[in-house]
Amino acid sequence: MNTTQVAETVTLADILAEVRRLAGRHQVFLALVGSAIAIGYSVMDLMGATTSNTFAGITVTVFVQFAVMERLLGDRLHPDRGEKRRYWSLFGSGVLSGLGIMLGLLMLVLPGVYLAGRWISSSAYVVAEGKSAFEALGSSWEQSEPSQFAHVAAAVLSILPTLGFLILMVAEAYGILGLDEAVLIIVSNVLVATGTLLVWLFGAATYCATHRGRNELRHVFA
């Protein structure tokens, strides 16, 4: 399905405005989902890491991500996206972008941050337009072309809780904090859940900011 339009230029302020709009509209829903993610991950960690737990966690996360993105993108869902929810495409775009970003981070960090910005809205293209994983990555790349700085800056802001988690892990590894294991698990998973939601929220917000014209035309001709 080819629903991508000519790329619009957006600023970081535009993206942050959409973040505030979406977060304000769905604050209770996001708080409940974030709490559920933190509790679920904490329970799994306390039970001990197993292959079945990891697989179950990944599966549930994909379904939850799709539901959250669909809720956030409610007024941007394309009428031609089809009724079938493309969970595999969402999973695939996450894996492909994750691998690319990881390789980029290994190459002096900055390439990974750049890729994170260019692919920040790939999941939104899967949910809103029914695109495949490769199509979603391509659309996110094309739409971010005129506003690369804004997209990269948004990606950096979205991963701040994840950076906090990494700092926490390093500090604990060196015995700086000396936290009880249960406390460490809870705090770390709160950071992980917050980071996860922020990545989804910024992805949806970036998509909405980039497609402002489409939504305005839809209201005009409704």
Can you offer a commentary on this structure?
This protein has helices at 12-25, 27-47, 51-72, 87-106, 110-118, 122-129, 133-143, 148-158, 160-173, 181-210, 212-221. It is mainly α and 222 residues long. The longest helix is centred in the last third of the chain and has 30 residues, at 181-210.
Key descriptive features of the protein:
about 220 residues
Summarize the topology.
Blueprint: H1 12-25, H2 27-47, H3 51-72, H4 87-106, H5 110-118, H6 122-129, H7 133-143, H8 148-158, H9 160-173, H10 181-210, H11 212-221
Short description:
By secondary structure, the protein is an all-alpha fold. It is 77% helix and 0% strand.
Helix content: over 70%
Rounded to the nearest angstrom, the radius of gyration is: 18 Å
Helix count equals: 11
- Can you tell me the number of structural domains? 1
Q: What oligomeric arrangement do these chains adopt?
A: single chain
Encode the helix/strand succession as letters: HHHHHHHHHHH
Give me the secondary-structure category.
mainly alpha
Average pLDDT over all residues: 87
Q: Count every beta strand, where a strand is a DSSP E run of 2 or more residues.
A: 0
Q: What percent of residues are in strands?
A: under 5%
Question: Strand count, sense and closure of the main sheet?
Answer: none
Distance between the termini: 23 Å
Low-confidence stretches at least 5 residues in length (pLDDT < 50)?
216-222
Outline? globular
